[in-house]
Amino acid sequence: MVYDRYWRRTCAATYARLGDQVVCEDIVQDIFLTLWTERTRLQIAAFPGHLAAAVRYQAARYQRAADASPLRYADALDTLSTDAAHNHGEYHLLYRDLKGHVAAALGQLPPRCREIFLLSRLQHFSNDEIAQRLYISRRSVETRLTTALHHLRLTLKLVGMVWLLVHHA
């Protein structure tokens, strides 16, 4: 019954994000399969909101996987593009380092502020969904998100300045 009621709407929302009908149907099928297999564990307060968040998450996950460059082989180095021949190891290390700094900066935030930021930016909940989930006003959500983003900007700006001084001195 739930599948019949929400399938078309969920598929349309997924198609609006990805533009590929076959992929959308697969993603929607996976969403409903997960709902079924996890039905005893899940506690869903607002089902349409949960579906919308699942669509956002799954579409973003699909796009990240599609954007990942496949491994390509060539007989001669000059047949590869410069991007394919470039070693991205240093960038991955810098990214991991940056993630550590972001985690440390988030650790400095008050718990509720951090929770709201994580719901918004990592779990892709809208401000209304966060407000409803945490039983607070939308304005309170917006204020705490602004506080978190301001703190992160300042902290990461300082980290960037220190990194530049250390690595380019």
UniProtKB/TrEMBL annotation:
UniProt family annotation: Belongs to the sigma-70 factor family. ECF subfamily.
Transcription regulation keyword on record: yes
Domain RNA polymerase sigma factor 70 region 4 type residues, every copy: 103-152
Family matches, as Pfam families: Sigma70_r4_2
Record key words, sorted: Sigma factor, Transcription, Transcription regulation
Organism of this sequence: Hymenobacter nivis
GO molecular function terms attached to this record: DNA binding; sigma factor activity
Identification of the protein by name: Sigma-70 family RNA polymerase sigma factor
Recorded superkingdom: Bacteria
GO biological process: DNA-templated transcription initiation
